[in-house]
Specification:
Blueprint lengths: L10 H9 L5 H5 L5 E3 L15 E14 L5 E8 L2 E7 L4 H12 L3 E7 L1 E3 L2 E5 L2 E5 L10 E3 L8 H14 L18 H9 L7 H5 L4 H25 L12 H9 L6 H14 L6 E6 L5 H14 L3 E5 L3 H15 L6 E4 L5 H11 L5 E4 L13 E6 L7 H16 L14 E6 L5 H7 L4 E5 L9 E7 L3 H13 L3 E5 L14 H11 L5 E4 L5 H12 L5 E4 L12 E7 L6 H8 L9 E7 L5 H12 L3 H12 L2 H4 L18 H17 L1 H12 L9
Parallel strand pairs: 4-7, 10-15, 10-16, 11-13, 11-14, 12-13, 14-15, 17-22, 18-20, 18-21, 19-20, 21-22
Antiparallel strand pairs: 1-9, 2-3, 2-5, 3-4, 5-8, 6-7
Helix pairs in contact: 5-7, 7-22, 7-23, 8-10, 9-10, 19-20
Length: about 700
C-alpha cells in the first residue's frame, strides 16, 4: 500500500479504525452514513414540535446534580422564546464543568436533540451539544451519522472522512456507456452522500433509493461480480482430467433402476457430462427442491469418472445423511462391479484405517463425512468430488477436498501442492433452492444447474397449522396413523432445556410421548448421540421397527423413509422457512397421503406469523426461498460461503435486482474489454482483500 493511500491518524486511532476495517483513504470514503440529522436550521424553543430532532441555540442558566429518582445532571437553559431542561442520566465530571464554564462565561451552546414535554416543561434527554461563537455560521449540509466503534467519535470520523474525500482518488473508471441510466458520477455520488445539501430528498437518502445511493450500490455489485467472475475464469486456466467416456456404465445403471429420469434430470446430467469432458475443472452447483432427484444425477457423474479409471468422492455434512447416501449408492453400484467405500469419524480405528487404505488404493467411490478431508486421508486418482448440502461447508473445507485430488494427481502425499497439480472436477449440491438474484451475486463464480421438476408419483403434502392448545388432538392423530400402519416423525428444536427460550426439548418430549403412546414403539435421535446410536435409531425407523421417531433437526436433509407419512414439528414458530420446508420434505416420499403438522405456541410474533403463513400457503421450494430471502436476507442461503465471497454492505438483493443484472452484464464486458479498469475498480472496493474463490 502506498503511503498516500494510508489514513493519516495517530497510531492509537489507527488501531481503532482497523477494527472498523479501515486502513486506506478509500475505506473511509466508502464508509457511508446510516442516517442524517438536520443542523442547517435553528429552531426557537417555543416553536419546537415534540418528538422531532431539532437544533437550538441556548445559554446555560443553571447546572445541578440531582438524585431523584437517580443521580443525573440537570442543566436549565434558555433562548429568547423560552426555557428547556437538558437532562443527562449518564455523565462525566468534565461535562458538569463544561456547562458551568458556559454558564459563568455566558457562552452560547448549540444543542441538538428530540424535545419532549417533561414534568417541569420542555426537556431533551442526552442531547448532542457544542460551544459556538457569536453569529457562528450554521452547517450548509445535513449531518451524517456513521457506524462506529468504541473510542472513535462521530466528530473524529467526520474529520477523517472529510480529509479522505480530498486525498482519495475519486477518478471515474466507468464509461457512461456501461452505467445504468441516470446514475451520477462516482465522485459526485460520494460527496453528496457524505454531505447532502439541505434541499436533498431526505426520504430518498434514508431509504437508499437516491441516485447517489444507487451509484454506490451498482459499483459495489460490480466489484463483487468482477471478483467472482475473475475467479471463475482463473479456474478455467487450470488443468483437470478430461473424463471422456462412452457412457456404458451410466446406461447399465439406468437400466437397473425401477424409474426413469425426468426431463430436468436428463438435461442437467447432460450439462454435467459436457463439463466433465473438459480439460479445466468443473465447478457446478446443482440445486433442486426436496425430492427432485439430485442423487441419481450425481451417480451418473460418478459413472463417467469411474469408467475412465478415476475415483469419485461423495462428502455430506452429517453422518446420517452420508450413511444414507452410502447405502443408496452402494445398492446401485456394487451390482455393477464398482467398489464403494465408507469413511466416517464414528468408525473404529481399524475400520477407518482399512477405509483409508482403500481410498489410497483400489476404491472407486468413497462416501463419507468431513473425515474425507482429514490430513491422513489420500486418494490414488481422484477425478470427481461431490459435496452434498454444500452450504453447510466452508470455502476452506471445499478447498481441502480439491487439494486431495491435486495430491493424487501428483502421486504424492506432500502437504504442499505445486501450482501445476491437477484439481478434480467439483459438483456441489443443495436442496435449498437459491433465488435467481442471489445465484447471480454470491454464486457468480459457479455454473448453476437447476432441477425444476419433481419425479412422477410424488404426492402433495398437506400442511396444517395447529395451536399448542390442541396438542392432545395431534397425539391422537399420530396414534390413528400408526394403527393404520404408518410411521411418524416428531421434531423438536433443542436437545436440553433452555430457560431463555422455554422450548419443549427432544429429551422431555421423548419421555412424555413414550408414556402417551403406551404400546407404541418410540425412538429418539439427536445430534449429541454417538454415530452408532444415531445409525441404529435410523435403521430401526427405516425398517419399520419404530413407530414414532422423536428427533431434532439432524433429520432435516436426506433422510428417506417412504412409510413415514406424518411429520409433527413442535414449536414450529422457532424454525426458519428453509428448515421447515426441508423437514416437511421428509414425508410424502412414498405412495400414501402425507401430512405435516406445524404445532405452534401462542402468541405468535409478527415475523413468526409471516413465516408460518408462507410455509402453509406454498409447497414450491423456489417460492419459499424467495420469501426467505425477503424476510431474512442472504445469510441463510450462503451459510459458510460468505467466508470467501465479498459481502454486500449497501446493495439489497430484493430492491436492487435490476442493478444486479446490470452489474453482471457490465462485469463481463469489462473483463473482456477493460482489464486495467477492472484492476482499478477492485482495488478501490477491496484493496488487498479480494478472494480468488478457488474452492
Amino acid at each position: 500500500m502506498h503511503a498516500a493511500d494510508e489514513i493519516d491518524a495517530p497510531p492509537a486511532l489507527k488501531a481503532k479504525l482497523r477494527k472498523l476495517g479501515f486502513s486506506r483513504s478509500d475505506d473511509l470514503v466508502l464508509h457511508l452514513p446510516i442516517r442524517y440529522e438536520d443542523e442547517t436550521t435553528l429552531t426557537k424553543i417555543a416553536d419546537a414540535r415534540p418528538g422531532a430532532p431539532l437544533l437550538f441555540e441556548v445559554q446555560v442558566l443553571e447546572v445541578s446534580i440531582q438524585f431523584r429518582p437517580r443521580r443525573q445532571l440537570v442543566v436549565r437553559a434558555a433562548d429568547s422564546s423560552g426555557e428547556v431542561v437538558l437532562r443527562f442520566l449518564n455523565f462525566y465530571a468534565s461535562q458538569t464543568r463544561q456547562f458551568e464554564e458556559a454558564r459563568d462565561r455566558e457562552k452560547k451552546l448549540r444543542v441538538f436533540g428530540e424535545l419532549r414535554v417533561g414534568y417541569f416543561g420542555p426537556e431533551i434527554v442526552h442531547p448532542r451539544y457544542r460551544s459556538v461563537g457569536e453569529n457562528e455560521a450554521l452547517s450548509r449540509a445535513l449531518t451524517p451519522i456513521y457506524p462506529t466503534t468504541a473510542g472513535v467519535s462521530q466528530a473524529a470520523l467526520r474529520r477523517l472522512i472529510a480529509r479522505a474525500l480530498k486525498d482519495a482518488d475519486l477518478s471515474e473508471y466507468l464509461d457512461a456507456a456501461v452505467l445504468p441510466k441516470q446514475l451520477p458520477a462516482y465522485a459526485d455520488a460520494l460527496r453528496l452522500l457524505h454531505a447532502p445539501p439541505p434541499d436533498a430528498d431526505e426520504t430518498a437518502l434514508q431509504t437508499r433509493s437516491h441516485p447517489a445511493w444507487r451509484r454506490v450500490k451498482f459499483d459495489e455489485l460490480l466489484a463483487q461480480q468482477l471478483s467472482l467472475r475473475r475467479a471463475y475464469l482463473a479456474r478455467r486456466q487450470k488443468g483437470a482430467p478430461a473424463l471422456v467416456s462412452d457412457g456404458a456404465l451410466a446406461k447399465r445403471l439406468l437400466a437397473s433402476l425401477p424409474f426413469t429420469l425426468t426431463a430436468a434430470q436428463a438435461r442437467v446430467a447432460a450439462e454435467i457430462r459436457v463439463d466433465l469432458a473438459q480439460t479445466f475443472p468443473m465447478q457446478r452447483l446443482l440445486q433442486g427442491d426436496v425430492g427432485s432427484g439430485k442423487t441419481i444425477v450425481a451417480a451418473l457423474a460418478i459413472c463417467q469418472a469411474v469408467e475412465v479409471g478415476y475415483q469419485a468422492a461423495f462428502m455430506a455434512p452429517t453422518e446420517i445423511l452420508a450413511a444414507q447416501n452410502f447405502l443408496k449408492l452402494k445398492a446401485w453400484f456394487e451390482p455393477l462391479g464398482v467398489k464403494v467405500v465408507w469413511l466416517a469419524g464414528s468408525q473404529k480405528k481399524s475400520e477407518k484405517e482399512a477405509s483409508r487404505k482403500q481410498a489410497a488404493g483400489d476404491a472407486q467411490l468413497v462416501v463419507g463425512t468431513h473425515a474425507l478431508i482429514r490430513e491422513e486421508v489420500d486418494f490414488s486418482r481422484l477425478g470427481l468430488a461431490i459435496i452434498d448440502e454444500q452450504h453447510r461447508f466452508g470455502v476452506a473445507q471445499r478447498l481441502e477436498l480439491r487439494k486431495k485430488g491435486e495430491r493424487s494427481a501428483k502421486g504424492t502425499n506432500a502437504k504442499d501442492v505445486t501450482k501445476d497439480a491437477t484439481p478434480p472436477h467439483q459438483l456441489m449440491m443443495s436442496a435449498t433452492p437459491i433465488p435467481r438474484t442471489l445465484s447471480m451475486t454470491y454464486y457468480a463464480d459457479l455454473d448453476v444447474s437447476v432441477l425444476d421438476e419433481l419425479p412422477p408419483g410424488r404426492r402433495p403434502i398437506v400442511t396444517k397449522l395447529v395451536s399448542d392448545g390442541r396438542r392432545g388432538e395431534v397425539v391422537e392423530r399420530v396414534r390413528t396413523a400408526v394403527s393404520d400402519g404408518k410411521q411418524a416423525y416428531w421434531v423438536c428444536p433443542l436437545i436440553e432445556e433452555s430457560e431463555k427460550l422455554q422450548l419443549q426439548t427432544a429429551l422431555d418430549t421423548y419421555a412424555t410421548l413414550s408414556e402417551e403412546f403406551d404400546g407404541l414403539r418410540v425412538g429418539l435421535v439427536h445430534g449429541r448421540q454417538k454415530g452408532d446410536e444415531k445409525d441404529a435409531a435410523m435403521r430401526a425407523f427405516s425398517a419399520g421397527e419404530i413407530d414414532v421417531l422423536v428427533a431434532t433437526t439432524v433429520i432435516e436433509v436426506g433422510v428417506d423413509v417412504p412409510n413415514a407419512c406424518l411429520m409433527i414439528i413442535e414449536h414450529a414458530e422457532r424454525f426458519g422457512l428453509a428448515q421447515l420446508h426441508q423437514l416437511r420434505g421428509r414425508v410424502g416420499r412414498g405412495t400414501r397421503d402425507s401430512v405435516c403438522v406445524l404445532l405452534y405456541q401462542s402468541p405468535l410474533s409478527t415475523a413468526a406469523r409471516e413465516r408460518l403463513k408462507v410455509i402453509f400457503e406454498n409447497s414450491d421450494g423456489f417460492v419459499i426461498a424467495r420469501e426467505d430471502l425477503r424476510l431474512r436476507g442472504p445469510g441463510e442461503f450462503i451459510g459458510n460461503r460468505q467466508s470467501g465471497v465479498p459481502m454486500l454492505r449497501y446493495a439489497n438483493l430484493e430492491t436492487d435486482a435490476e442493478l444486479v443484472e446490470s452489474a453482471r452484464v457490465t462485469a463481463e464486458k469489462m473483463l473482456h474489454e477493460s482489464p486495467d479498469r477492472v484492476e482499478h475498480h477492485l482495488k478501490r472496493w477491496m484493496g488487498s482483500r479480494e478472494e480468488m474463490l478457488l474452492a
